[in-house]
Amino acid sequence: MPTYTVTTANLSLSAAQKGQIAEAITAAHHAATGAPAFFAQVIFRALENGEHFIGGKPNAHPHVFVHGMIRSGRGIDVKQKLMGEAADKVRASAGVGAEDVWFYIQDIDAPQMIEFGRFLPEPGAEDAWRKAITPEKQSQLGKAGVRVL
């Protein structure tokens, strides 16, 4: 499951903005990689005033940082498409300039991740893995509006 952590500095996002950003990152990940949308998760963190420094100096200007951890095996073209599309939508939703959104992707090999109690499959082998998610977990996710199968 790709995990994207969105950290804001000197900026407070509303629930609506967070929803827009989460949807944009999820849609960009799905469109670029073909991975099922339900795989993507987005976590938000806000830094307190005085916790963001650039060049060793306090920064008071709003910034958004997106750190994505995804399965390895995708080319730079796929990753740059994902990042470019998502960064543009994050910028628009957060109301900041393009230079104030910093986006990072980190590749992790599938055998180095456990999600839903099992090691992740290699890209392209998600169907069998997904079908093995217990009915209880599928029900739990369904109640939250997430469609697994």
From TrEMBL:
<protein>
    <recommendedName>
        <fullName>Tautomerase cis-CaaD-like domain-containing protein</fullName>
    </recommendedName>
</protein>
<dbReference type="InterPro" id="IPR014347">
    <property type="entry name" value="Tautomerase/MIF_sf"/>
</dbReference>
<dbReference type="Pfam" id="PF14832">
    <property type="entry name" value="Tautomerase_3"/>
</dbReference>
<feature type="domain" description="Tautomerase cis-CaaD-like">
    <location>
        <begin position="1"/>
        <end position="127"/>
    </location>
</feature>
<dbReference type="InterPro" id="IPR028116">
    <property type="entry name" value="Cis-CaaD-like"/>
</dbReference>
